[in-house]
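so my prof wants the structure for this chain in the tokens format not the other one, which i didnt know existed until like an hour ago. anyway here's the sequence
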Amino acid sequence: MTDIDWDRRFAAFVARKEEEARNATLCPFITDVDRGGRNLLWIGDSWTGDLFNGPFYTSPSPGDLPGTSLVFVRSRNGNTGAADPSTLGAGETDKHLIYEGLSRAAVDAVLAGAETIRGGDVLFSVWRDELVHLRGSLGKSRHPTQIVATLRGLSFDETLLYNVPSIPVIVLTVPGCAELMGASLAERRWITPVVMKDKNDLRSAFEQLGRLGIARVSVVGGRTVATALIDAGLVQDVYLTTSPREGGQPNTPMYPKPLDAEVVVRKHGTGNEAGVVFEHLLTRF
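here's what i got, hopefully its the right format
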């Protein structure tokens, strides 16, 4: 392990993220469609209800498997690939109210592919004061468990997420990769490997997550992980925000095939975020 002062670096990162969220100007959404019904759970309070213009829904957990949602932003021409997702143009309200807010407020873990992290200072949590309070009121820890999926191994020594003992991390991987990472994992007892027999063994991996106490997971990227989870029938909710701008890396849709899902909520942005469209889709698996 390196001699970096990770506690100090983590404290600075949290302070920066909280200040950014606190200073963001949020414009309310307006509801166009709401078919939430009695079969969905709702998340929120009066503050989120005013900004989101109603309840934020999630599906009940499916038995012993964690309830799983995907959270994606795409450009008007359907691209989701971008080094910085904020450049896709979905706006501050989507980022702070949905992406780093309601979609994480009730989850036990946030899952990302290793390429989404790419080293440096990254940690997936809620940062706005009102959403921190909401998460606490739901009985959740300050920060969700971080799950990283990799088939190639991870660079541990320069990445914040792997070096804060107070933040539990789960590494979702395959046997050969787990062996390569063995020494680094042994140095970091707060990181738990979940080892699949192969890359197609996602269902048993999610059963292991359930046994580890993970009842709800928010998946934030990338596209390869999202596609694998959809194809494995493990995703119930898709939270998809479409920007009014074209952009992103060409030919990078969230899912490469038509998605068998129904729209239960559709909202549009206001003010300087007019043209932004948020949709909650329920998959038909």
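also thought this was worth mentioning. Residues 6-283 form a domain with the Dihydrofolate Reductase, subunit A fold (CATH 3.40.430.10).
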